[in-house]
Amino acid sequence: MGLSKRTYRIDENLVDDIKSVAAELRQSENQVVITALKLYRDYHHMQHKSTFINEQILHVVQGTLQMAENNINRKTNKLLSELAVQAAIQNMILANSLEVKQADLYRYRLQALDFLKQSQRIFRLDEANE
Length: 130
Description:
Elements: H1 12-25, H2 29-48, H3 55-98, H4 102-119, H5 125-128
Helix pairs in contact: 1-2
């Protein structure tokens, strides 16, 4: 790491502050200025070129959220499948006990689906629990 000699104009009050900090830390004024410039460089990088969250942490969080979403979707799909099977069993039992023909049962199902599509009813689990 090479050093180069540069000349910069610094306000007298700031020079006094640099001398005071150098004396307090028992460092040279040059070391205090170099440390200050490194801190400002890092500050500038964080303000303009970096994100608040480290990229690796961001990937971990996104992966965790994706995994949670997949688990929720899997459990929801399993529940909906179980409900569909139970509804089909109930329909068959009702149709058999009421002696409804299979063709009529299919027609009733289509009418129910059309009704739901026309009413644009969205079923919500929080409403079902009330």
